[in-house]
Specification:
- The protein is mainly β.
- 6% of the residues lie in helices and 65% in strands.
- It has one domain (14-190).
- It has one helix at 2-12; strands spanning 15-26, 29-41, 44-56, 60-72, 75-85, 88-98, 101-106, 109-114, 134-137, 142-150, 153-157, 164-170, 173-180, 185-190.
- The protein is globular.
- The termini are far apart.
Length: 191
């Protein structure tokens, strides 16, 4: 009887997974890949983003980005971001919901974010941000303004440096994004 109950519990949890693959280019040259996996189990879902980019500016640089997020009931519960430069940890960030606020730990320094986070950057791959005026950045740990600039097109401004990113959607899923940075502009395109 215990075996039957265990098997029932094992198979009663519905797990659904979806993966999106993007290529990353800059100046029409391939520089890397980004993979996003969303896993849904009951009303909790997780998003994992992994990217690896190799660029040559003045020297060759290998950049890796890992993001893990957990959402439940349309709210961010937890996120973890780690960036690597040439194989070594460059930065870390964790955001965790505790009661009615979030604790944020960025490179060992802690702070609080009071309020709800219903939409963060990881959701941009799977949900078109219709009607939103800001999103929470797991990497920068702040809200960034977002505005509609066309049919299924949006622009996000980083308030820390003024850099812009444009996002284009098809059937609610991110098709491409153009990200402007100080030294280069890179484009993500869904494969």
């Amino acid at each position: 009887m215990k075996k039957i109950f265990f098997l029932f519990l094992l198979f009663s949890t519905v797990v659904n997974s979806q993966t999106l693959d993007y290529k990353i280019t800059s100046n029409d040259s391939y520089i890397g890949d980004l993979k996003v996996t969303k896993t849904l189990s009951n009303n909790t879902f997780q998003i994992e983003v992994i990217s690896e980019v190799k660029v040559k500016l003045f020297i060759s640089i290998d950049l890796k980005y890992k993001l893990n997020c957990t959402y439940k009931n349309n709210e961010l519960l937890y996120s973890s971001v780690t960036t690597y430069v040439n194989g070594k940890i460059h930065s870390t960030s964790e955001t965790e919901k505790i009661g009615d606020y979030y604790t944020i730990t960025k490179n060992g320094h802690s702070s609080k974010f009071i309020g709800k986070i219903p939409f963060s950057g990881a959701l941009l791959y799977y949900r078109e941000p219709k009607g939103l005026t800001n999103i929470f950045s797991e990497f920068d740990n702040l809200k960034k303004p977002i505005k509609n600039i066309g049919i299924n097109e949006y622009q996000i401004t980083n308030p820390k440096n003024g850099h812009l990113s444009e996002y284009k959607y098809k059937n609610g899923v991110l098709e491409s994004t153009t990200n402007h940075h100080t030294l280069l502009t890179f484009i993500l395109t869904k494969e």
